[in-house]
Structures are given as C-alpha cells and as structure tokens.
Design brief:
The complex is a heterodimer of chains A (615) and B (220).
Chain A (H helix, E strand, L loop, with lengths): L1 H9 L6 H4 L15 E7 L3 H4 L3 H11 L4 E7 L3 H10 L17 E5 L6 H10 L15 E5 L15 E3 L6 H14 L4 H8 L5 E2 L4 E5 L5 E6 L8 E2 L27 E4 L1 E2 L9 H5 L4 E2 L2 H15 L3 E5 L9 H11 L6 E3 L7 H10 L7 E6 L3 H6 L6 H13 L4 E8 L6 H20 L10 E8 L16 H16 L4 E5 L2 H11 L5 H10 L13 H11 L3 H5 L14 E2 L4 H12 L28
Parallel strand pairs in A: 1-2, 1-3, 3-4, 4-5, 9-19, 10-13, 13-14, 15-16, 16-17, 17-18
Antiparallel strand pairs in A: 5-6, 7-8, 11-12
Helix pairs in contact in A: 1-5, 6-18, 7-8, 10-11, 11-12, 14-15, 15-16, 18-19
Chain B lengths: L1 E6 L8 H15 L15 E3 L8 E9 L7 H11 L6 E5 L8 H4 L2 E8 L2 H9 L1 H6 L4 E6 L2 E6 L4 E7 L2 E7 L8 H11 L7 E12 L2 E4 L4
Parallel strand pairs in B: 3-10
Antiparallel strand pairs in B: 1-3, 1-4, 2-3, 5-9, 5-10, 6-7, 8-9, 10-11
Helix pairs in contact in B: 1-2
Classes of the chains: A alpha/beta (615), B alpha+beta (220).
The complex binds iron/sulfur cluster.
Iron/sulfur cluster binds next to loops of chain A.
Chain lengths: 615, 220
C-alpha cells in the first residue's frame, strides 16, 4: 500500500507536514462517487503553493460541483523526491494520496516561468508521459492556467490544453466537457477538439507554426475547423456573482502567507508599462463592500486566522476602501484579528486604527519607485514622484521607523547611467529625510536598502518588443550602482543572480522551440530553478547549445512592429495597437493617465459592459 | 476546561508548536468564550500537559483551556469537534477549578505502545525483556541542559511488556525525570547489541497519581 510507504518516508524528510494533508477545511469527497477527478498541481513547494490565492479559489470552484472532486499536489522537496524514487512511490495528492495519473485531469498553475522544469518533474514523478504526443488514451488530460498561460508556447509540447483568463467558471466548463467526453467514449483527439470550444482554452495540437529563415514566425494557424483563429481570454464581468471560498485550507505548518487573503478587486487601472499583471488582469473589477464584509466574516469563522489581508494589484485604489476598512474594524472588534493592506494610502485616523489591529509592528517600510529618475518613471508610466516618496519617507521616520526598503528595476528600456545615479540620489535624499528628524525623536539604526532586480520584458506589455540588457551590460550596471550607493552612508544595495533573469526572459517571450530546450535542461538535472541553490545556469546554457537554440534570439533581440509574436493568437483583451501606442509614448517619455480618470482605449472597450471605466 | 484530544496517525509528524497553533485556531473557530492573555500579542490561554514528540501518535493527549465564561463540557466538546480537523478530535472534557495545579505538575507517567516495524527484531527484543529489566541498573545517556548526562533509567520504567510486535510500557513523565520511549528502545537494543529497528510510538494515556496509585490524568 503506498500510504504505508509514504508514512515510512515521512520519518526521514525535512518538514514532513508538507506532505501529510488532512488540514482543516480540506475536501473529503468520495473518490468513487466523483464523476471527474482533478489534481490541482502547484509546481513549487507546499509553503509557496498553499500561500497562493488562485489555488484556493479554483479548489473551491471544482469541489463546489457535486460531480467533481479536486485534490492538491505540490512539488516535493529534493529529499522527498529522492525517497519517492527509491521506493517507487509516484507523485500523490495530499487529500487521498492517489497517484496523480489516476486523476482524469492534471492541472498546473503557471505563476512564473522558472517553475516550468518543476512541471516536467511533477509529470515524470506521476508517471505521465512528458510530451503530449506520447500520452495514451488512459493518461490524464494535462492542462495549465495562470498568468504565464498567456504565452503558452514554451510549454506547448507538454500541455494538452491551456486555460487563459479568469478561471472560476472556465475550469468548471472544461471539466464538464471532459466528463461528458469520457462518458461518450470519445478518443483523446476528439476530446481535445471539443475542448477548443471552451472559452479561453487553447489546444496546441490543433495549431501549426512555420518559421522564416531568420527564425521569426512566418505563420501560425489552426489545423482544424474546431480551433478558433484567436483565443479570447475568459473574462468575468461581475466578481460578486462567482464563487469565492468561504472556507480555505488552514495548514498545520507555517506557510509564506499564513493568513486570509481577501481579493477585493481584480485588475489595475494604473497602466505601468513593465507590468504584465496590470495588462493581463484588465479590466478592474471590484467586489462589492457588502460581499467582502460577508466573505471576511465567514472566512474568519471558518479558519480562525488572526489576520486578514486585503489583496489586489493595488488595493489602495479600491473605491470604497475607507468604508470597507471601517466596516471590517467594526465587525472584527474583540476578535483579535489584524487587518492589513499592502499599500497604505489612507487618512491618518484610519491608518492608526489599522495599525492598532496589527500585533507586531512591521519592521520596515517598503516603496517601489522602480526607477531612479522622473524621466524613466515617465517612460514606464509609474505614477510616483520624488515628492510622494519623500513625503512618505519623512512621515515614516517621524513616526518611529528607521528601516526603509526601496525597490528598483535595472535595464528598463531607454535607461542610461544617469538613471542609475538617480537611484543613488534618491537613496541619499531618503537618508537626508531621516537626519532631518531631530535626534531624540527618530528611531535608531537607519537602514535604507535598495534592491534592484533585472528587468524582464513580458508579453502583452508595451515593452514586449524590447531587448533585455545583456548579461555583461547588467553586470556593468550592477557594479556602477554598487559603487554609487557605497557613497551613500546608511544605504546598502541588494542585487540578484542575473543569469536567472536571462533565462526568465527567454521563456517569457519564447516560442514552441523552447520546449526542446526545457526538456533537455530538465533531463540534464535542472529543477527548482526558482531556488537559488538549485539554479544551474551553466547547465541551462549547455541545454540551449545542444538544441541549437540561441537564447539571445529570445532575450536580446528587438522585435519589429509587424513581427508575428508567439502569443499573438491570444486575445488578452488589450490590443496590439494599444500596446504599440504605449510603446511609442514610452519612447518619448510621455505618460498615460490612470483609467479612473478616463478610458485610454486599451481594447477592453470592445466588449460591452465589461470595463466600468470606459464609456 | 480540561479536554482529552487525539493526535492521529496522519498527524504524527506535526510538531508540538504546530499542534499548539492548530489548537489556538480551532478555539477561535469554535466561537467558545475563551480567555486571551493580556499584552501586546494576545493569545488564547491554553496549556498542554506534555509536548508530544514529532513522529508520535497521541490517543489521549490533554490540554487545559481557560474560559472567560462557564460552558458545559458537552457544549465544549461539540463546538470544538466541529472546529477541529477529523484527525484531531476531542473525546471528553471536564470543568476544572480555576486554581487547580498545572497539568504539567500533575503529570506523573504515560503509557506508550511502541510498534516495532521489524518482526525478527521485535521477537528478540520481547524475548529478552525479563533479563533486560532484571539488570540492577540501566545506565543510559540523556540530554540535559548541560549536555549529555548518564542516568539510571530503571526506576523510570514502571512496567514494560511485549504484545505481538509491540512493547507496552509505562514510563515516567514527571518534570525533570521523564523517560522517552526511544530511550527504552535504544537501551534495550544496546543490551542486545543489535541495531535499533524502526518503531512507531503511540502515547496511549497520560497518568497522574492518586493516593499512590497511577490513574488516568483526566480523572484527577
Ligand atoms: S477599456 Fe479603457 S478604462 Fe477600461 S481598462 Fe481599457 S483603457 Fe482602461
């Protein structure tokens, strides 16, 4: 019995609670009675997966159907993986410990590109053929969704169907089609054709690609009438009418976000040009205040969590934020619940009442100016000014904080060394704001931490045509910035492994040919790439080399306006024309207003009643 | 309120800190009128008779919850069982005087079932229990605050018998002189000069003392 073997393995691994299952509020549905069984796979560890809101929502959505069952699967850590291999134990679900190849559907959520090797690892551990072409009739249907599914091509060899867009209703439709097809005895091939008609679903087997001699795409077209020419993402118009879990699993062990996450809205109106999420999740849809309060109360009751975090891409923009917080404070009175908000743009009374609910004071304050000069912030349309930042920093220091974190990106389009010096300038001014507070009144131990990540151009952003800085250039810039920041007393500098961003850039804008590279890298031992200690840059380069694929083609190349991009067949709601317009404005350092001040014609206005800020 | 709960097989790898956190959250979910500590970081006042090691199953673990208002034991059990995961249910509860001595000070011994996962080893070990216990002293090493210390564990083993492939032992759990089941297993294997087999430990009962007799802790 595999459960016995698992029991014995758990004695030998670190963090066994990752694998026990049986947490509060997890589904205990009958395996035999379910007409469709879905294994929800998170291609990273339990602590990361269980912190992810999307997984909890879709878990609830599938289990809410009387006929379908959803169980969770996370990527085992290396120690567990080795034992499983030794003992011949296939990858199993947390709830009932069934091997994943006994499920009808195996679904992955794609949150970041560097988890793709984990997808392959999980399929392999589950004894499911990696390449979709090699799968037999009895193998599960392998699907994938999440933000990275907007450019599905690098995984096209391995995934039977991608789900693009809002998943709550789509996943139920997809399951129903699979259930019916299985009942009707359809072949895998027939079933895949049926799936192509579900909204937002892309079935790679039904499309063919040809290439020009220079490596760019010559054509991309469906090879059967069932497949739509363009796949429009699934869009929900009213979040109040779709499922949101009233109960979520409460892990025994501590996870990264160990709290209630209340998604107050989806989408963002700000239009930062580097931000894929800001484009992909358009338009903004807010949940109503009443609904949110009701959800918060039931979640608090069902989980016993001591913290509720109001989450979204930019929670400060929620229309009735002050009322919402006031109402939540009232309802949570005496319950010892902290209410937190990632960004605080609130009047001070409310800010204080919020802070009063938070038992431990946060130790440092975070700002993300993203770029060092106003010019570059205009290029990326990040609507934050130096005056904003200085005001907040001064407030923070006067309020007893002594530690501030500043987040920047390096290698943004049009960036010059002057912009990098701007980062050091900004840090110097923040340090100055600290010393401007009289000595007795400020907290001791000033720390201004500047982190600079390497910019990765993403599909469906105005920068999708832009080259990434080369590794050499990035390293030069990192050294320059390090030296500039050394001159600033009280400031320190954090930067990361740039090889990882280079690989991320290749996959972010990769096409089908990246599939062989991925497979080769995996076969050569690449896995858990998102974990520093496991990222094997040299092995990745070898894999590219052995496949005859040039990573520079994907990361460093400037695309032409009329080039067919690998993800062009997906309609994300935002049009290519809008993105190109935005790119041109970026080139001229012109900003675009927040949609709350009027429609910018991004493309969502094509769908009546979808975006509440247009027309 | 004193309550008896189970930590079932599935949860045996959950450590004591995680069990404590789970219990805190279950108490919050139950909606019962519990008392919170004062201070900056208030938590529900609940204490456990004894931390159960990671890897062990607990059949009748015991905790004490300070209530803010009177609640009947029946109401406590039913509210908590709705709020606890299926692998961690409460079997009974009992109202306690607020001034009762702490559970840890009442704890005297515990009964353990040590399942030996290797049949040959089990046979050998059980066959030599009598000669093992007939030793004048059973010297073993125990971790203490100042490093490893030699102790005679014989007086800490109140009884031990074999049953199939299982050792059933009553071991001291008194503060400062407790004997862990793996100490017994290791000492027995050392006595037989054999490798320690894999075992699964179940703590089946916590015990206190009543007029010199050992009785289940929850009856005190
Ligand atoms: S349709 Fe208009 S208002 Fe709505 S997201 Fe697009 S640009 Fe903004």
């Amino acid at each position: 019995m595999i459960s016995e073997k698992i029991e014995a393995m758990l004695e030998k691994v670190q963090k066994a609670p990752r694998y026990t299952g049986g947490e509060m509020n997890t589904a205990v549905k009958s395996w035999d009675e379910a007409e469709l069984r879905f294994a929800f796979c998170f291609p990273d560890t339990y602590e990361v997966g269980m912190s992810h809101l999307g997984m909890k929502i879709l878990y609830a959505a599938i289990n809410a159907q009387p006929w379908s069952l959803c169980e969770r699967v996370c990527m085992p850590w290396v120690d567990m993986m080795a034992l499983m291999q030794e003992e011949n134990v296939p990858l199993f679900s947390l709830e009932s410990r069934h091997p994943i190849n006994e499920f009808d559907v195996v679904g992955f959520t794609l949150q970041y590109e560097m988890s793709y090797t984990n997808v392959l690892a999980m399929l392999k551990m589950g004894n499911i053929p990696l390449r979709r072409e090699d799968r037999r009739e009895e193998d599960p249907i392998v699907v994938a969704g999440g933000p990275c599914a907007f450019n599905p091509e690098p995984l096209a060899d391995f995934i039977d169907a991608f789900m693009v867009g809002d998943g709550e209703e789509q996943i139920v439709e997809l399951n129903a089609v699979i259930r019916d097809a299985r009942k009707d005895g359809l072949s895998r091939q027939e079933l895949l054709k049926k799936l192509a008609s579900v909204r937002g679903v892309y079935v790679p087997a039904l499309y063919d690609v040809t290439y020009h001699e220079d490596g760019t795409i010559a054509s991309f077209a469906p090879n059967c009438p069932e497949a739509p020419e363009k796949v429009l993402k699934a869009i929900l118009t009213d979040l109040d009418s779709v499922i949101y879990p009233k109960e979520i699993p409460v892990p025994y062990t501590e996870i990264i976000h160990d709290r209630i996450m209340l998604e107050i809205m989806r989408g963002c109106t700000r239009g930062c040009r580097f931000c894929a999420a800001g484009m992909l999740y358009r338009p903004v849809r807010e949940r109503s205040l009443e609904h949110l309060v009701e959800l918060a109360c039931s979640l608090e009751k069902s989980t016993g969590y001591e913290e509720i975090s109001l989450s979204s891409l930019s929670s400060g923009d929620y229309t009735c934020l002050a009322e919402l917080i006031r109402e939540l404070l009232k309802r949570m009175q005496g319950k010892h619940v902290a209410i937190s908000l990632p960004s605080l743009r609130l009047d001070s009374v409310l800010k204080e009442s919020l802070e009063a609910t938070q038992q431990e004071r946060k130790t440092s304050l975070t700002f993300a100016p993203e770029a060092g000069t106003q010019r570059l912030r205009d290029v990326i349309n990040k609507g934050i000014t130096e005056a904003d930042l200085m005001e907040k920093a001064s407030d923070a220091f006067a309020g007893g904080w002594s530690s501030v974190k500043l987040y920047f990106m390096m290698g943004l389009p049009t960036e010059t060394y002057e912009d990098l010096d701007g980062i050091a300038d900004l840090a110097r001014k923040v340090v100055g704001a600290y010393f401007a507070v009289p000595k007795g009144q400020r907290a001791k131990g000033l720390r201004v931490t500047c982190s600079a990540s390497v910019f990765v151009p993403k599909p469906f952003t105005p920068f999708q045509w832009e080259p990434q800085d080369t590794l050499e250039e990035v390293q030069r810039k990192q050294l320059h910035l390090r030296d500039a920041l050394r001159q600033v007393k009280g400031a320190n500098f954090n930067y990361h492994e740039s090889g990882l961003s280079f690989m991320e850039a290749c996959f972010a804008r990769g096409d089908r040919r990246m599939g062989q590279v991925l497979l080769r890298a995996f076969e050569k031992g690449c896995m858990l790439d998102g974990w520093n200690e496991h990222f094997k840059y040299d092995t990745w380069l070898e894999a590219f080399d052995e496949c005859g694929v040039d990573p520079a083609f994907y990361a460093y190349r400037r695309r032409e306006k009329d080039e067919i991009l690998p993800w062009d067949f997906i309609d994300s709601g935002v049009t290519k024309e809008f993105l190109w317009r935005e790119k041109q404005k970026a080139d001229n350092a012109q900003t675009t207003k927040d949609c709350r001040q009027g429609c910018n014609g991004c493309g969502l206005q094509r769908f009546k009643g979808v975006c509440k800020f247009c027309g | 309120m004193m309550a008896v709960f189970e930590k079932s097989e599935r949860l045996r790898h959950i450590g004591h800190l995680d069990i404590q956190r789970t219990m805190q959250r279950a108490l919050r979910r139950s909606g019962l009128p519990v008392k919170y500590s004062q201070g900056f970081n208030p938590h529900i006042l609940v204490t456990f008779a004894s931390a159960l090691s990671t890897g062990a199953i607990g059949r009748r673990e015991i905790m004490d919850v300070t209530m803010a208002e009177d609640v009947t034991p029946e109401a406590f059990v039913s509210a908590m069982n709705g709020a606890l995961p299926p692998d961690m249910q409460i079997s009974c509860a009992k109202t306690m005087d607020d001034r009762h001595p702490s559970l840890t000070s009442m704890l005297y011994a515990a009964e353990f079932e040590i399942r030996i996962m290797d049949e040959d080893a089990a046979q050998r070990m059980i066959a030599s229990l009598d000669s093992f216990m007939a030793q004048e002293q059973i010297i073993t090493l125990r971790k203490s605050k100042s490093g490893m210390k030699e102790v005679d564990m014989k007086p800490l083993v109140y009884s031990v018998q074999g049953e199939g492939a299982t050792l059933r032992a009553v071991l001291s759990q008194a503060e400062g002189s407790s004997c862990k089941p793996d100490m017994l297993v290791n000492a027995l294997c050392a006595f037989l000069s054999m490798d320690t087999p894999r075992v699964i430990v179940t703590r089946s009962m916590l015990m206190g003392q009543d007029e010199g007799r050992m009785v289940p802790l929850e009856t005190l």
